[in-house]
Amino acid sequence: MRALIAALLLLLAFATPVGAESAPPTGCGFQTLGTLPLTGATTAGAAMDRGRVYTVTSSASGPAVLAVRNAADARLVSEHPLPLALGSWAVTVAPDHSVYVGSYNATAGAMGRLFRFEPATGKITELGIAAPGETFVWTVAAAPDGSAVYAGTSPNGKLIRYDTRTGRLSDLGSPVPGEQFIRDLAIARDGTVYAGTGAQSMKVAILRPDGTPIRVIDPPIQGNGYAYDLDVIGHRLLVRFATSTGVNPMGVYDLRERRWERVVDDVDSLTVGGGRHGNQVYLVQNDQLGTLDLRSGKVRPTGFTDFGGGAARPLGWRGDVLVGTSSTGRMWHYDRRTGKGRMFESTVTGQHVSIRSLGNGPDGRVYAGGFFTGGLAAYDPKTGQSQFWPNVGQSEGIVTHKGKLYLGVYPGARIYSFDGDTPTQLLSLSDQEQDRPFAMISAGEWLAFGTVPKSGTVGGALGLLNPDTGQKIIKRNLVPGHSVIGLAYRDGVVYGATSAFGGISTPQDTAAKVFAYDIAADTLRWVTAPVAGDLALGSITFDDAGRLWGLTPDAVFEMDPVTGQTLRTAKHQTYPWATATQVWLDTNLEFHNGMLWGKVQGKAYRIDRATMAVTLIARPISNLLKGADGHLYLSRFENFHTYRIC
Q1: What start and end residues bound the annotated signal peptide (predicted)?
Q2: Which of 19, 92, 198, 530 shows the greatest Cβ crowding within 10 Å of its Cβ?
Q3: Which of 186, 229, 184, 181 is nearest to 201 (CA)?
């Protein structure tokens, strides 16, 4: 038996996807279903130089791909894999025309890396890990004299310097201690470094070229978030702030007078200085291109709105034509003489995106939400056929309620109904500082959902929506400081599991909680911590005897739903809670056929209720769902599998 399980695990880990357009599986145990048609061109990082546009297309399991396109017509010139990278927000061009890329890698323990591309030879060189422990390189910027390239990282908000002459990478530390992110960098002509930080204070650190701190600029606004986009234009520093409330003002700071000159209302573009033309800065406001006059402070809309979806990024000029990109892989032009624009369809090669979430549809199909660029796919267990809808956002939660499909979409914790054609937004909790609706269940007349707040904030929410009447109940901070990441429902009561982490790296409690919320009475019946020391719980579910079960990253627990008393707890493995910086939903738990079935720490288990013993059935696994046909559906990155329970 052990040999059989080992063989199945090996098959799961190394099987080559063959596509999910095949006959439905039969028999028992594992079946590899290939890949669902979740593809897209996510191109967050971009730069332009000498008539070429450089973008990086994200990939579910890697490698990410650096694309080179002609700025004049979006024609694809070449594509180059970036080893060990899943994607990039960070692309810049140095004075010698070398292209530098900072990457991220979502694999546990993997680090963000730096790469250099030489356009003349087409050579990609990996320069190394930015800094040990830093998983994400958010931004790169080149010194005007070509001596160095700087990078900003997370989760420890470090500034990294790459010496272009010696090839040495230096960790310059965290310019604002305690901040998790350096979200953007700008380098002045004299080499002074400006680092925008977050996710709490939104401060801008000023440093000498060697990383020596000069001073820190406090933001001109209140709240939490990021100093997201920076640019130095003459004696002015432009900073776009991405706040936890979803408002994104841009500050104009006078470097000579050391004061904020003005604050411009909501600015949406990812770079604010890439479209500079004299004293005019081209930016995106209210979903259309506009110009900001740096002398008068007036913003004038141009009327151009067709950026191709996603976040627009003005890159620079070809004569009188502004060239920009979208995070959906498209390019656009705006001619300042004629006032007309043009959007080009994406010419970069689409990549598989990771399966972010799984849920059952009202039609018996298994629905899967795609990461980042999103997309939604459905797989029919009866026919083996699949379907894809590309223009659906990143679904964190998927559930059927009263015969209709509902999606919980990031960012802004948006709730949509989906009728098989286009999604319809029913509400958003962006104004409540919420972002990720992981937990969704059908709760009688109500659709219930639980959320994680935006970066830089704490306090998730329990939401209830009656789609028939439009009535909604939003309970933020129901358990103070906690995010709501798991839900179950029975007899008018919503049961919730929490994480002590919100949008910051510091836990807000010594243990995560389970609560019982009585909908009719609008009261909490009880709140308890079932597993001492566990800072995030995860999925909860009922069995056929009405007992409430939970699966945490290191424990299985059983509770009395009437009193909230923990009846039994069993540790299934260890977890590094002492060093954990942010843990949200890491488990899936289902009851079927007398057993509990769970996914945790990248593994899938069968759990015996009597002994609470766990038996490994698959790894590596990211999502687990019990389908309407009574079998399990599992995913890892873009790969899709089933475990048939006989």
Answers
A1: 1-20
A2: 198
A3: 181
**Cα separation, 381 vs 524, whole angstroms:** 40
User: CA–CA distance from 252 to each of 226, 247, 605, 622 (Å)?
Assistant: 15, 16, 54, 43
pLDDT in tens, 68-90: 999 999 999 999 999 999 999 99
DSSP one-letter code for 6: H
Phi and psi at residue 556, to the nearest 5°: -110, 135
> In this structure, what token pair is assigned to residue 391?
């223009």
Taking residue 125's Cβ as centre, other Cβ atoms within 10 Å add up to 12
| Contact criterion met (CB below 8 Å) for 554 and 592 | no
- ω into 175 cis (within 30 of 0): no
The SS3 of residue 516 is strand
pLDDT band at 17 (very low <50, low <70, confident <90, very high): very low
For residues 503-526, give the mean pLDDT. 96
Buried b (16+ CB within 10 A) or exposed e, 356-366: bbbbbbeeebb
| Contact criterion met (CB below 8 Å) for 408 and 374 | no
Q: How many CB atoms are located within 10 Å of the residue 237 CB? A: 24
Q: Is 324 helix (H, G, I), strand (E, B) or coil?
A: strand
CB 643 within 8 A of CB 615: no
Q: Which class does domain 39-344 fall in?
A: mainly beta
The maximal CA–CA distance of the chain, rounded, in angstroms, is 76
Averaged confidence pLDDT in the chain: 93
Nearest residue to 534 (alpha-carbon basis) of 516, 517, 557, 515? 557
Give CA–CA dist 201/306, Å, rounded.
33
Which amino acid, 538?
G
Is omega for the bond preceding 576 within 30 degrees of 0, making it cis?
no
What region does 144 belong to: left with phi over 0, alpha with psi -120 to 50, or beta? alpha
**pLDDT digit string (tens) for 438-459?**
999 999 999 999 999 998 899 9
Residues 6+ apart with CB under 8 A from 285: 264, 265, 266, 267, 268, 299, 301
* C-alpha span between 93 and 114 (Å, rounded): 13
Beta-sheet strands, E only, within 491-583? 493-499, 514-518, 523-528, 540-542, 548-551, 555-559, 566-571
CB distance 122 to 80 below 8 Å: yes
Q: Is the dihedral of CA 209, 91, 113, 395 positive or negative?
A: positive
Q: What would the two tokens of residue 304 be?
A: 């151009």
What distance in Å separates the CA atoms of residue 197 and residue 618, rounded to the nearest whole number? 40
581 band by pLDDT with thresholds 50, 70 and 90: confident
Element (H, E) at 14: helix 2-14
| Residue 405 · residue 64 · CB < 8 Å | no
HEC letters along 419-478: CCCCEEEEEECHHHCEEEEEEEEEECCEEEEEEEECCCCCCCEEEEECCCCCCEEEEECC
Rounded CA-CA distance 432/430 in Å is 5
Tokens standing for residue 274? 């890439």
**What are the two backbone dihedrals, phi and then psi, of residue 588, each rounded to the nearest 5 degrees?**
-130, 140
